[in-house]
Amino acid sequence: MDRDSGCLFTPFDLNGLTLKNRMVMAPLTRSRALPGSDVPHVLNATYYAQRAGAGLLISEATQISPTGKGYAWTPGIYSPEQIAGWKQVTDAVHAKNGLIFAQLWHVGRISHPSLQPNGETPLAPSAIIPPGLKSFTETGVFAEIGIPRALRMEEIQGIVEDYRRAARHAIDAGFDGVEIHAANGYLIQQFLSDSANHRMDHYGGSIPNRLRFALEVTEAIVSEIGSHRTGIRLSPVSAANGALDSAPMPLYTSLINALVGFDLAYVHMIEGDTGGARESHGFDYLALKHAFNGAWMVNNGYTQDMAADAIATHRADLVAFGKLFIANPDLVERFKRHAPLNMLDPTTLYGGDGRGYIDYPFI
Fold it and tell me: What domains appear along the chain, each with residue ranges and CATH number?
């Protein structure tokens, strides 16, 4: 390996956790929890353990409560059975000398009544429907989401408490930490973005008001499990799920400045459009990195060479890979050897059994 590529394989101290390399497996929804209970099981344990060569694994997005669900067969972390299921996963990862964080998730308006308790209307900061969006339902097909219900003031603190409980459950399940999912147009980003948040109370309007929910969630989780075990994922210019903000640079500059006070383990930054173009639209990611006081993780379409360059030039401390880890459970070893990569089978991404999940070959 050349010198630049070799920097990907150096250890990294993540607030007391020693990552064996700078490669992170990104959170990846695969819709393979047990139907009816959303409990992780032995198939999931095998999948994550296969990929434990990464310096850090981040779990698929995991709903903090029944109202947080937006896609069929995605796992939760609010019931005793789910916690026990995740313990199988974390035990399997740790047996392979891996580290794993749980990504905590509430989808907000990106859901369908059939996925909500008692068929109720999905929740959101404001009753604004994102046009043309669909949710993956238990029937195995995508259905258009409807107009969400705006959260009442007295309900918001209950959701903050759901995040706190989910963080505690994650630690009880053996996770090494948690990642707050504040990206891709889900509930936290809906509060952040002026296109999704039209509230007139102290959770809407000004930037400080729109930051409030994200900061309350962060404070609750940090107070419960510690800042060294807490990261956050952001996607400032992604159009995913229709929650763009009209002025993302001042919004996210204010957010990063506020997050500095929590001494978080890391920021996980999606550069450009999630799963799409890396165009920054004038957004200055490097300015935010310089303002932040923790580790800086980057994501979106990184190749081995791009990742090595980002580490070598100090534009990132860690690089997260998504689809490459799906098709290449031994991605770290393949990168080390500059070996050919398996091709992804897009037809097996969501739902199903072990095919396209745990049967990708190792070198």
Answer: 3-348 (3.20.20.70)
